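Q: How would the structure tokens look for this protein?
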Amino acid sequence: MRNQQTWDEGNRYSNKLLIRLGVALVVAGIIFYFIPLPPLAGVISGVLAVSAAALTVISLTEKHLNAMFDEEGNRKQRDQF
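A: Here is the predicted structure in token form.
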């Protein structure tokens, strides 16, 4: 959130990740629908999967932004990443 450029890039990148992980979570949900689990185990595994997806999006987005921008929010040169 250093400037509009970093904000826009972070949102663009995380949007793509969220769509991909959302599709993966839907597919996993469909698969686990057919696997008999106790109700509490299903809820816990769902919460853990969504939490892991959220943490993955945050960490990968931060890594991407650190590769593209310096500490002041200026875009790095192309040959640096």
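Helices lie at 4-33, 39-68.

The CA atoms of residues 16 and 57 lie 10 Å apart.

Upvote if useful.
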